């Protein structure tokens, strides 16, 4: 049994760490820090105007294991750190932490307004993946930021609740608005009905006049006289159209 355990232990996966050259890594990080510290806006604009192939060619010729994306990201992170911590003053000793597929290099740095930690991350081929500048805040500053974030969050919630309450309070005016629109529709319907009735009456009067003229002509023809001798005062319609026997 002991022999089997020893054999199985020997067949297990061996944990290895990434091998690297500290001097080479420090040279690359120092180059990056010095470049970010001394580059001006014109040089940076010229660099950004270059294409990916030109950037990669310059890295290859200089022997630096950078990629255009990681290098540009490092420059942006440095500029953000300058805005937050002030101008760069110097840095301390490097600390290396290697894993099987990654190398992390960190160094404490001093800036005019506050201290920070610069961290470099390299992949398993020792190409730069990222560089970050993390400002160091005191406990009071951390508590102040936490308090401001809490107030901002709670304030936003209360503002939204007040707005929702205001909207709910307006619901009581909805029936009145609906009634007002309903009255307008009823008035329009009544006006339409009145106009139709007037039109029907005018049509009926026109029909009656024509009917009177026809009856007058028929009577005059039957009496062999003219229509001047009599006047039709009114015409009453029978309730049924059937002839009485």
TrEMBL record:
UniProt xrefs under Pfam families: DUF3887 (PF13026), OAD_gamma (PF04277)
MF terms in GO: sodium ion transmembrane transporter activity
GO CC term (a single one): plasma membrane
InterPro entries attached to this UniProt entry: DUF3887, Na_pump_deCOase
Start and end residues of each DUF3887 domain: 53-130
GO biological process, one term: sodium ion export across plasma membrane
Keyword entries, A-Z: Cell membrane, Membrane, Transmembrane, Transmembrane helix
Cellular location(s): Cell membrane
Transmembrane segments: 151-174
Protein's name in the database: DUF3887 domain-containing protein
Organism: Dorea formicigenerans
Lineage, opening ranks: Bacteria, Bacillati, Bacillota, Clostridia, Lachnospirales
């Amino acid at each position: 049994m002991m022999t089997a355990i020893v054999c199985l232990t020997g067949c297990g996966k061996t944990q290895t760490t990434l091998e690297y050259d500290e001097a080479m890594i420090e040279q690359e990080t120092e180059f990056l820090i010095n470049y970010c510290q001394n580059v001006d806006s014109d040089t940076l604009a010229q660099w950004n105007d270059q294409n990916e192939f030109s950037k990669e060619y310059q890295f290859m010729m200089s022997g630096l294991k950078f990629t255009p994306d990681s290098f540009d990201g490092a420059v942006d992170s440095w500029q953000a750190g300058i805005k937050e911590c002030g101008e760069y003053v110097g840095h301390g000793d490097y600390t290396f932490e290697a894993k099987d597929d990654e190398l992390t290099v960190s160094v404490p740095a001093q800036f005019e307004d506050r201290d920070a930690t610069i961290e470099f991350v390299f992949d398993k081929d020792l190409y730069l993946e990222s560089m970050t500048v993390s400002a160091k805040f005191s406990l009071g500053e951390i508590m102040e930021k936490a308090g401001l974030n809490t107030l901002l969050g709670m304030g936003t919630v209360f503002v939204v609740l007040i707005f929702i309450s205001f909207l709910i309070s307006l619901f009581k005016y909805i029936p009145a608005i609906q009634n007002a629109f309903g009255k307008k529709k009823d008035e329009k319907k009544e006006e339409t009905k009145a106009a139709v009735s007037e039109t029907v009456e005018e049509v009926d009067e026109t029909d009656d006049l024509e009917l009177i003229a026809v009856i007058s002509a028929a009577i005059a023809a039957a009496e062999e006289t003219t229509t001047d001798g009599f006047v039709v005062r009114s015409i009453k319609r029978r309730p049924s159209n059937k002839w009485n026997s």
